[in-house]
Model the fold of this input.
Amino acid sequence: MPTSSASFRPTKLSISDTTLANGLRVLIVPKRNASVINITVAYKVGAKDESPRNTGFAHLFEHLMFEGSSDLADGAFDRLCTAAGGNNNAYTTEDKTIYYMVLPSHQLELGLWLESRRMGDFSVAQNSLEVQQSVVTEEIGQNVENRPYGRYSRTQAALAFREGAPYSWDVYGSVDHVRQATLGDVRSFYELYYKPDNACLILCGDVDPEQALPLVERYFGSIAGSHTAIKRGSLGVDDRNGGVHEVLHDHIPMNSVFLSYHTEGLTHDNFFTAEILASILSDGMSSRLYRSLVYEKQIASEVGAYLDERELSSLFSFYTIGSKADVTCDQLNEAIKGVITTLIDRGVEDREIQKARNRIETRVAQALQRNSGIADEIAHQTLFFDDPERILRLGDYFNQVNADAVRDYASATLQDSLSVRIDFVPAAGR
Done:
């Protein structure tokens, strides 16, 4: 997720915040540096909201929502957008689905009409469903079943969480579930989650709020909100599996280890401490993991750490790839744990924390130079914190992280009882 610090708060960022009668949150951010407009529609639905019997639906829907409505023929959405000089795409995570479109600013009304049609008038024929089922299953084959390390997310999900609990399957879901989806199934999923009161609309770019808001009201105001309570997944402590280990054979040249630890969801205050810790451990050639495993021990060719954030329960994750064929998974695992132990025993230095803030600053400053980066971050803050202007205050939270907080977090989180370890070893015959 994009993060921020006080020294690089977005300057001259004004957010117009309006909620329509049907519950749609509308955020308008004027940025007059170019004659383009980013239109982002974010829905609070992801893989964790699916039924264990219908996994992969959120991702399937990402594809289906480009298939048009009763007044948009198959493929017309993309054709109209492209003809107007624009482009569009979408992505799905465990917790959200984001659609975004970039158009010349004078084509704002076209973009609003297109987005309102698929929010308020979703219509998919059987042949369109079958086409997208084929596309998605082929994507699963390419990205999961036939790609090195492609099975990692699926295996991690099944290993880390109790069967049937949210997050116990990956975003792609089951091929069989995707193939067996009926028009009735997808219609029910749409009716439950793709409603204005489960979404927010962000306009960022060359836009005047006073002129844009009446257009938003014209195209989105008549779309009905939810008639029933929106189903939300929940996760208990017993739904998390720790101290687990699995070995996978794959078409890779060297042994590799992926090691994760259960930690709090993204709305917890520890999020900021976790991001600082991940940077200290793995950002750059002077980071602790790189120095130890790559430079000093010379047993790894790649190593890293990151926070795999989710709404209900996140994973603080490590990965490392051996540098030579005789480096074992146990050696790699013990080397990571050695770095962890040293950090917990000796703590971290203030200069490391400041360096981590600087690196985060650089990444986020780059992201927030783009309208798409601003819109995406505002969508995130709105969906999960109900506070779009939180984007302006993130730096305050990062600046509150100190050495004691990092050490305490590492000590409490990076424990064997919370660990999920997956070893990848070269398949026989390679």
